[in-house]
Amino acid sequence: MQHDKEAKNGSTQENGIMTGSRNIVDEITGHRRMRRNRKADWTRRLVQENRLTVDDLIWPVFVVPGENVVDPVAAMPGVNRMSVDRLVEAAKEAADLGIPAIATFPNIEMHLRDETGSHSLAADNLINEATRAIKKAVPGIGVITDVALDPFTSHGHDGVLRGDVIVNDETVELVARAAVVQADAGSDIIAPSEMMDGRIGVIRQALDAAGHQNVGIMSYATKFASAFYGPYRDAIGTGGLLKGDKKTYYIDPANGTEAIRDAALDVEEGADMLMVKPGLPYLDICWRMKEAFGLPVFAYQVSGEYSQIKAAAMNGWIDGERVMLETLLAFKRAGCDGILTYFAMDVARHLDRKG
């Protein structure tokens, strides 16, 4: 009799939820069901908000002296230091895959390093040799170069060390001169990472005075005093050289507002693009920077981020390819226009296969 009574009322009870004319889920949601757009692959593709493409990738590479050198970086599985000739071959492959740009970092001989990083000013140094070779062989790929002094100093700091102090103004003078030398060699974008005050404006003036008005500046606008840089320092040979730490010129990881203030100064001084480094731990900074300034924003997925993914994947703890893609997509969702990542070639090959 109870069943007949419910049937007359046009409703039944299933696991405590009313169905038929009175569905408690529809009453709660107002007939709005988020899962409708998730029900099939084709609907999920139609409503996807962010996409990772090869156009989002910048490939950081390590350059060493010599010929026919491909030297694996032990702390970064799958990453190699390459001599200029082998780097040119790699740049050709990157261009063929559609990667827009590479960022070069040198590991020079120890006898060329000194207290002031003076070899950074040599027109024929390793970074400039690589730039000239790449632009000659692969003119369609962008070359981004850093003017920080750490690959050239005997103490591993990004600037000139006087006593226990990294001196700001003398460092700025040197990196501005190095920027002109790098632009003379064919660098398309100067990316100063040493975090000295006033460097963007001085570099812009120096480039313009030398006739390099078309050379851009991608500012390391917010480079944090992070623990994620270790494998990179090994790759460029500064890991064992560093005296002290870099907290007097890198940003405290606790300070988001300071980071945005720092970026604002770079914008005022003429930066064309902004970078957040490291990447994933600072997605909030990526978002705030994009919202605040509207300039192209890039994240650097640094060596420690890369290596922890590779190590976990090699141990079978995670699906390395899926995590790689998920982390890079997170940068896009946070407002980034692109990502510097050691995964660039892997991602480009994946997208090429998928496409």
Give an overview in words.
A hairpin with a 2-residue loop joins strand 1 (11-14) and strand 2. This protein is 40% helix and 17% strand. It has helices spanning 2-8, 24-29, 41-47, 84-96, 126-137, 168-185, 199-209, 230-235, 256-269, 283-293, 303-314, 320-333, 344-354; strands at residues 11-14, 17-20, 57-63, 70-72, 80-82, 101-106, 142-145, 160-162, 165-167, 189-190, 216-223, 273-277, 297-301, 338-341. It is α/β, with parallel strands linked by helices. It folds into 2 domains: 2-46, no CATH class; 54-354, Aldolase class I (TIM Barrel, Alpha-Beta Barrel). The radius of gyration is 25 Å and the shape is globular. Belongs to the ALAD family. It is an enzyme of class 4 (lyase). Its EC number is 4.2.1.24.
Q: Please give the largest β-sheet.
A: 8 strands, parallel, barrel
Radius of gyration: 25 Å
Distance between the termini: 62 Å
**CATH architectural name of the largest domain:** Alpha-Beta Barrel
| SSE string | HEEHHEEEHEHEEEHEHEHHEHEHHEH
Number of strand segments:
14
Unreliable residue runs: 1-10
CATH topology of the largest domain: TIM Barrel
What amount of the residues lies in strands?
15-25%
Give the strand order, joined by hyphens, for the main sheet: 3-6-7-10-11-12-13-14
Shape: globular
Average pLDDT metric: 93
The tally of structural domains comes to 2
Helix content estimate: 40-55%
CATH class of the largest domain: Alpha Beta
GO molecular function: porphobilinogen synthase activity; zinc ion binding
Pathway: Porphyrin-containing compound metabolism; protoporphyrin-IX biosynthesis; coproporphyrinogen-III from 5-aminolevulinate: step 1/4
Protein name: Delta-aminolevulinic acid dehydratase
InterPro entries: ALAD (IPR001731), ALAD_AS (IPR030656), Aldolase_TIM (IPR013785)
